[in-house]
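Below sits our specimen:

——
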Amino acid sequence: MAEGTYKYTVWDYIRSFLSMPFFFLLLLLATPVILLLSLGRLNNFIVEKIAPILAKPTLAFLGVSFSVKKHTEEIASPAVYIINHSSTLDMLTLLAMGLPRVRFVAKWQFQYNPLFFVVGRLTGQVFIRREHSEKAVRTLQKVVSRIKKQRLSLMMAPEGSRKHEGVIGPFKKGPFRMAMELGYPIVPIYFEGNRELSSGKFLVTKKGSCTAHIHPPIDTSSWSSNNLEEHIKEVRKLYLNWAGVAE
């Protein structure tokens, strides 16, 4: 669906406009708790329990019913989780999942917000400059030892940005190289409904429902630089199939 075909009501705009102050108020109230927990090295508890407490009320405020559907008996951990990224709403649904021992790879600009900067640094999130691929790679290489030592998972978007042509954009190699280097499986997560509810630059959202589909892990132990591109194409085909679009 093209962005121009989205029709929002006045109440959609009002609700969406108020949702961000609502979210930041919750985050501000939670910051002292997050600070205390981070001092006690309870960062995983923050990501798994506190983040959903912030995200789920904000989704409800927006009139969005969010659910998680597992297509696998057990969520692999540690792993490199990947998502389709085409909506501003993704930020909230990522937090709402409360995945175990996960760290988010986010764009550097998020740190321009003081609250995101403080909370992100306290909880060990990874900020990269996506517009500078070499710097992004170096940043990821620096965190590999920490991720391995603490048996943490990573959450990454292979499309790199939500601004791309088509429903599923081209996949970058970064998340897949990280999985190979860490010796982790890839766990595909498909967000259904996010793009249909909110496709614009800002968090203007219609009422509705969206679902995070967590699919079975993909073993990367046999992957190499020689067959990496072929494996990436196979994973992207899965997303195209889930989105119901032709390659």
Observations:
- The beta strands are 64-70, 80-83, 102-107, 126-128, 153-156, 186-192, 208-214.
